[in-house]
Amino acid sequence: MYCGNCGKQVEERDKFCPFCGAPQKLNAAKKAAPLYAKVIAGIVVAAIVAGGVVTALIVNDAKDAPPTADVPSVSAVSP
Prior knowledge:
Strand content: under 5%
Number of strands: 0
Shape: rod-shaped
Structural class: mainly alpha
Radius of gyration: 32 Å
């Protein structure tokens, strides 16, 4: 990264330029925030997609299951 005042190379962690003393506006913490937000958004999208796949599998499995027969209960059988 370069100083916006004197143009010399400075470390990203520097709050002030070691050559001219000018404050540095961009630092590593400010650059990391957009990446963090993208990671969180990716996790949320992945969770939604996974939930949709699981729901689709459950619905399809229920449609393919054979119908259950009505079995009379013991009390419904005449002696």
